[in-house]
Amino acid sequence: MTKTNAGRFFEDYAVGDVITHAVPRTVQMGERALYHALYPARHALHSADTFAQSCGLPFSPLDDLVTFHTVFGKTVPDVSLNAVANLGYAEGRWETPLWPGDTITATSEVIGVKQNSNGKSGVVWVRTTGRNQHGAVLLSYVRWVMVRKRGDGPAPQTVIPDLSGSVAATDLVIPRGLDFTNYDFALAGEPHRMSDYKVGEIIDHVDGVTVEEAEHMLATRLWQNTAKVHFDATNRPDGKRLIYGGHVISLARALSFNGLANAQLIVALNGGAHANPCFAGDTVRAWSEVLDTAETTAPGVGAIRLRLVATKGTAGELRDDDGKYLPDVLLDLDYWALMPL
Q1: What is the rounded distance in angstroms from the CA atom of residue 107 to the CA atom of residue 74?
Q2: Sign of the CA dihedral 233, 236, 237, 241?
Q3: What gap in Å lies between CA 163 and CA 273, rounded to an integer?
Q4: Model's pTM, two decimal places?
Q5: For the chain, how far is it from start to end, CA to CA, in angstroms?
Q6: What is the CB neighbour count within 10 angstroms for residue 148?
Q7: What share of the chain is helix, strand, coil (3-state, %, to 5)?
Q8: Hey, is 247 helix, strand or coil?
Q9: For the stretch 328-340, what's the b/e string if a residue is b when 16 or more beta carbons lie within 10 angstroms of its beta carbon?
Q10: Which DSSP state fits 4?
Q11: What is the pLDDT of residues 296-326, one digit of tens each?
Q12: CA dist., res. 4 & res. 337, Å (int)
């Protein structure tokens, strides 16, 4: 009998299964340093204890996407080791800040399966929950991934989950103590508050980042993401290693600082799609569209709903006349962030 793990194939998933993911991970300031080295991330609340304390927090939490990447990485050996591609997200909520020294664990429940028409792969939906050492939920979200079949045998019965189109503003969890009453716009880097943004506004974030193979490999190792499509160039017919979709998310979020420097905390992930693959050598640019705004119960704190698009093309261009994503579009992400009113 083999002692190694070949990963799950599509036939191995059944709705209702709950998977406990190995291995717990304690995160420290090293993860912050590496995150800021990999991405041009510079939102003030995630950069300085003094700024976070002026906003009512005890010190600066780790970037919200550090939580996402670490939880995501825990799930890969059980959910997407044999993935063809990660497809999308829904119903994501950050519920507790991630502090240096916290230990992250993760579980996933299979909530949907559907074989593809080619009979060689299928889509699996899972609801993943990441917790800290106290059992508090850090992050929960749904994602769906295309997974190879082991053979030509029968597929699980199709179940497609009914997912919400967005997280309601009233369901957003605001970190305890957060207060933007005395927010320092000069130190944050831009003067724009939530009332300066209008629904439908398009923001071109101007800058671009060319993706290198080395930084992508460092990122996937950092987040312990072992999906074969990211590491093994023989795993795809074109002989290319697919850039981890979360890497593109973090690049786009970091680029969005130019125009959205005061969108300090990500608190919900309404939906998202990796529209086209990203490979080393691609230059990633980003633009955002304001979808909604809302007040919260926290002093001086508003919530802004944004569409974040990573693209190799032009700002504001998303779909063709048939409603399909344009070939240059890499990511279409819908999220809520917290911003001074």
Answers
A1: 9
A2: negative
A3: 14
A4: 0.95
A5: 61
A6: 18
A7: 25, 35, 45
A8: helix
A9: bbbbbbbbbbbbb
A10: S
A11: 999 999 999 999 999 999 999 999 999 999 9
A12: 42
